[in-house]
Amino acid sequence: MTVTIGQGTSRTERSTGTGGPIQHLHHELRLPHPVERVWAAVATPEGLPGWLAAADVFEPRLGGAVTLRWLNGDESATHSGHITAWDPERVAEYTIDLHGRCRFHLEAADGKAGTTLRFTNEFDGDDELRLDCLAGWHNHFEFLVDALDGRPKDWSAWSLDRWRELRESYARSE
User: What is the distance between the alpha carbons of residues 168 and 174, in angstroms, rounded to a whole number?
Assistant: First the structure.
């Protein structure tokens, strides 16, 4: 089964405080892999580097510390926070500086053979950052599909080309 990553959606909410707007991004993927395998990719320090970032610190429990280090060549891209929701094989949520709240909600689909992954990202930021993040998550979910199929991301071959293409596509669809 070929997985197609659909266009992510977003909405902007005005902040009630003095900060900027709050962005809400959503992606939904239907994956031909069991929940256990998808969970291992999105919620373990062994699975995350294959598609997202190295988990330098990862305490798998509510309130546990998490530090993610992006592997795409920018050594300064390390962000820390806490696990703000944790229900094994169902919900993993990380709230980290820069990226805000990142929630992965997994449900069995097609019996036990597949998984529906619903992803939500909430953060403070303007429309430019919203478009950057829509494209970035879309690109990372392409990497996730490859990793689940046994082809983890070779970060030494990473470039901005695909992200730029996705970014332009999201900007045009506005």
Answer: 10
Residue 84 CB partners (closer than 8 Å, separation 6+) = 62, 63, 93, 94, 95, 101
Locate 75 and state its tokens: 């050594």
For residue 48, the 8-state DSSP code is G
Cα separation, 158 vs 120, in Å, equals: 24
User: Whole-prediction pTM value?
Assistant: 0.93
pLDDT tens digits, residue range 34-91?
A: 999 999 999 999 999 999 999 999 999 999 999 999 998 666 689 999 999 999 999 9
Helix (H) or strand (E) holding 122: strand 114-124
Q: Of 3, 29, 38, which is closest to residue 112 (Cα–Cα)?
A: 38
> What tokens appear for 69 in the block?
């280090």
Non-local (6+) Cβ contacts of 26 within 8 A are 8, 9, 10, 118, 119, 120
Residue with tokens 């959503």: 26
